[in-house]
């Protein structure tokens, strides 16, 4: 009985799951902490894969991980959280170890692929996906194909300037969407305004999170609400630009911060509506929440494997 | 002897040319003014096509025109300069008249296609094209395919915000790239600064053009030079974003204003270099001038016809 092993390497944990040839119900899922004192990340991940594989013959191993990486070569150019993964040949190392086809993709890109094949984006040939959590990642399906670019580094949608000379981004540049509308940015805005003397029910709290800000906003906190409105406004500005750039038929929001729902999406929609250059871009456009939740990475890796395997044997 | 008739509908003139099955040397080109007191634009264009066709049997007619339009249906949603072309079924009207396959595409998109097939972008699978003239248009080749979007309105690269609440754009929105870095915007900046009291050798001139500003800059005019530096800075900001979005291997600048060369491209390159999130996006990246000049529209239409005809008969 052959199956596909999907692996999702996150900042906190690595998950591996086995999927049968059809469907999206995994027959086995296991997880380990990404960072640990014992053994290299690669060796521990390989052991994790072994443990879900058991006696099954895997048809392929497909990995979702944070970029930048080159999906063509399977080389991880840099992985912020994983020591030693600099120009790391992840695909070749796994292929050597398991003797099956291995595919490696950017986690946000694969989440878009997962939502397209199995989630909120089914049936759409032109799809825009944004994941909003500590950072902002993106994925684009264009004419029924994942947008990757010349070296697989496309769709870094969090790293476009929305406010020149604005707040510092995690990437070192200024005024990027991620620096203004990510969960980190929302929380930072609340903290800074409180430090500047603004009243808020979050005043006095240490290490305010976007989730706490959402909770406060739900209870009527003016500052917290404003923080989401500000983020939503710039998100909407960026999305209006992405509509002009990609003309998608659906925009999907994933990631933890998107779970705040209308608190974020209402200002996004208002901003998109106001800033789109002609209403034709809104004709039939859906703006929706992602459906796959925490499984987006695994199911995206699964989708990647199925697409690549069918390309390898087009008659299969 | 069968050939392809390419038509380029510009703001000033309409050109039609016949191309043989191979190569890019037209056997006949004719032109008429776009706007005239006599007859409808469609009838005059049809007569123009007749006149280049003569006794040849055309294999197809392929038209480049300003959008917004839907290349799938060949309907021109709106044409600013042509009275009556609102939801105008250009493809069907031409097909009815000539009885051959007709293809209709956005002029900037087709210019990108032309540069890709026959010009500066040959051999690149991921290409970004920007045409800078009175406005700013764009075209993107992604994984060897023209980016069109769900309704053919993608790649409107001049209509992304580079400065929130900035100058008014021709489309009615504010702070778009086109409103800050087009020829019109460069000329307006010079005029406004002169009106505000800045010295310039262009002071006193009526209706300053971007070309005159380029001439003045070449002669050392400080204000004119600054106008191009400002445009180049924001162009570079937008291009850095487009690198993160598309990860192309080549960026091509076309349109009249790009002929100012280093005056514009030097600040663009400096800005891109400064604003890219990781140098990996610049690895092997070319930033070059377009090669097809005024023929970009015709040759883009030719490329469109050859691609579509080969899709119609894949074994041909």
Could you describe the 3D structure shown?
- By secondary structure, chain A is an alpha/beta fold.
- The longest helix of chain A has 25 residues, at 222-246.
- In chain A, the strands form 3 sheets. In chain A, strands 3-2-1-4-8 form a 5-stranded mixed sheet, with helices on both faces. A 4-stranded mixed sheet of chain A has the order 10-9-11-12, sandwiched between helices. Chain A has a 3-stranded antiparallel sheet with strand order 5-6-7.
- In chain A, α3 (107-118) packs across α9 (296-312), α6 crosses α7 (222-246) and α7 crosses α8 (262-275).
- Chain A folds into 2 domains: 2-106, ATPase, nucleotide binding domain (Nucleotidyltransferase, domain 5, 2-Layer Sandwich), CATH 3.30.420.40; 120-290, Nucleotidyltransferase, domain 5 (2-Layer Sandwich).
- Chain A is globular, with a radius of gyration of 20 Å.
- Chain A contains 9 helices and 12 strands.
- In chain A, a hairpin with a 7-residue loop joins β6 (75-78) and β7 (86-88).
- The mean pLDDT of chain A is 94.
- Chains A and B meet through α7 of A and α7 of B.
